[in-house]
Amino acid sequence: MEFEKFSLRFPYNIWYAILSALAYGPLEAFFITWLIVNTDYRFNGLSKTISPGLLVTVLVFGLSHIVLSPQGGIMNAIRVSIYFLILSSIFKYTKNSVGPMIAWTLINGQVLYLTIGCLT
User: Fold this and answer.
1) What DSSP string describes 30-57?
2) DSSP assignment letter at 11
3) Which residues lie below 8 Å from residue 11, measured CB to CB, with a gap of 6+?
4) What is the pLDDT of residues 57-78, one digit of tens each?
5) Rounded Cα distance, 96 and 110, in Å
6) Which of 27, 69, 79, 91 has its CB surrounded by the most CB atoms within 10 Å?
7) HSE on the CB side for 87, CA within 13 Å?
8) CA proximity to 98, closest of 30, 23, 21
9) Quick one: how far is CA 80 from the chain centroid?
């Protein structure tokens, strides 16, 4: 995999690498956890770990990867859905989004792409 070089000078390259690592994954995870909670609120599933809000959000999120990232293919969408189901179940069980946010940041390819692109 070849990474794009952003040709940023020091200290801007470090700044953008840190922002990429700290913002992209948590931002996506926050949005998703917001969707889960609000969908569960509508379906009265806030007290359940595996809830209608979780399942609907995982399904929509997986399908969005087919539509919005067709180059990744169906296998990518399935893999993302499985990761998301596991991370979101952890969120629902612990009622704490920090762990899933960190994990999502680590497995998110866009974060890696931006971070390496800023540092090269």
Assistant:
1) HHHHHHHHHHHHHHT-TT-SS-HHHHHH
2) T
3) none
4) 889 888 888 888 778 788 888 9
5) 24
6) 91
7) 28
8) 30
9) 9
